[in-house]
Amino acid sequence: MVQHIIKYKNSFLEFYQRHEVLVSIAIFILGFLFDVVTLGRIDNLANIIQQALYLLALGTLLICEIRISIGRMSLSPKGQRFWQYHELVVHFLFGSLLSANTLYFYTSASALTSFIFILLLAFLMLANEFPKFQKFGLIARVTLFSICLLSFFAFLYPILIGHVGAVPFWLGMISSGAVMFFVLKNNFENASEYIRKNVFYPTAIIHILFVLGYYTSVMPPVPVAVKKIGVYHEVIKENGNYIGTHERSWMDKLNKWTQTISTRPGEKIVVILSIFSPANFEDQVYLKWYYDHPNRGWNLEDTIKLSILGGRDEGFRGFASKAHYMPGLWRVEVETSDGREVGRLKIRIESDSNLEPREFYKDIF
Predict the structure, then answer these.
(1) CA proximity to 285, closest of 144, 169, 164, 162
(2) pLDDT (tens digit, 9 = 90+) per residue, 104-142?
(3) Long-range contacts: 309-314, Cβ < 8 Å, 24+?
(4) How far, CA to CA in Å, does 234 sit from each of 10, 112, 290, 362?
C-alpha cells in the first residue's frame, strides 16, 4: 500500500514538473469552480469565515516563503516534502479568493469605469497562472494578496456597519494596513531592501490605488447590487409583491439596456427596482433622472431618494414615479449614498395619441 502511494506521488511530481503551467491552470480552475458552486450571499457567515481562513492560510504561506528566501527559516525533511506542493495550494487559494472578489464586485458594477475595475481583477486572476507573470515572483504574490485582503475588508465593514460610505471604507483600509504592518513588524523588523522592494512598496501602491478607486467611483459599491430594474405605467401591490404594468413585447424585453414606454397625456411613469443588500443593512440610494436634450446633451432633471432595508434574497423593492417629463431619451442612474453608481436604465419615452384600449403585461418584483 505504501509503495503504491509513493509510486503515485512520484508519478504526480514528475507530471507536475513537466507540465507545471497546465497543472497550475487546472488547480486555478478548480478553485474558481469550487467558489462558483459554493459561493452564497455575500453576508453569509460561512462565506466570510471561509475567506478569512483562506487569507490566513495564504498569508502564512507567503510569510514562510519570504522567511525561507532570506534565510530566516529552514525546513525539516518532512516540511520540505510538504513545501514542494505549496505552489499548488497557493494557486488554489488565489483562484478561489480572486474569483469570489471578481463575482462580488461584478454584481455591484454598473458604470463603464466599474467594469474596468472588474476586468483588471479578472486579468490578474488569469495572469497569475502564467510564467511571464510569475517571474515577478514575490512582488506579484504580495500584490495579489493585498488586493484580496483589501477586498475582504471592503465587503466586511459595510456588512457589519449596515451601510456603505467613507467610514466603512477607511476602516477597511486601516485594518488591511494594520495587518500588513503587524506581519512586517513581527517577521521582518529591520527589513532589508529586499523586503521593502518586494513587500512594503507593492502593498503601499495597492492601498493607494484602492483609495483612488474609491474616490473616483471606479470601485463598485459592494455589497449593494441592483438585481432588477424597469420602467412601467403603474405599480400595484398585491399579495406582498410589487407588480409593474407595461406594453413591451418579448423582443423589447430582450433589450436590457434601453426600455421603451408609450405615454398618453397626464400619465405618470414609474421606475421599479429590486436592490440587494445584506441583513441589518439600512441606507439610501438616489435615482437620478437625466434627459438627453437635443441641444445641451444629458442634463440632470430630478433626484429621488429611496431608503433601502437589507436581508431579502430577492432584494428590497422600491419605486419612484415621475409626472413631468418630455418625450425622448432618458437615463436613470441608481447611486449609493456615497455617490457610486450601482445600476442604470435607459428609457425611451414616446407620445401616444391613440385612444384605443391598451393590453398590459405584468412584471412581478
Answers:
(1) 164
(2) 877 776 655 555 665 666 666 566 556 565 556 678 788
(3) 309/277, 309/281, 309/282, 310/43, 310/162, 310/276, 310/277, 310/278, 310/279, 310/280, 310/281, 310/282, 311/277, 311/278, 311/279, 311/280, 311/281, 312/276, 313/41, 313/276, 314/227, 314/274, 314/276, 314/365
(4) 69, 30, 20, 10
**pTM for this entry:** 0.78
d(Cα 130, Cα 60) in Å, to the nearest integer?
23
Helix axes 112-127, 86-108, angle to 10 degrees: 170
Cell of 181: 504592518
The strand pairing partners of 287, in sequence order, are 304, 334
Short-list 335, 252, 247, CA closest to 290 = 335
Most distant CA pair in the chain: distance in Å? 87
Show the cell assigned to 13.
511530481
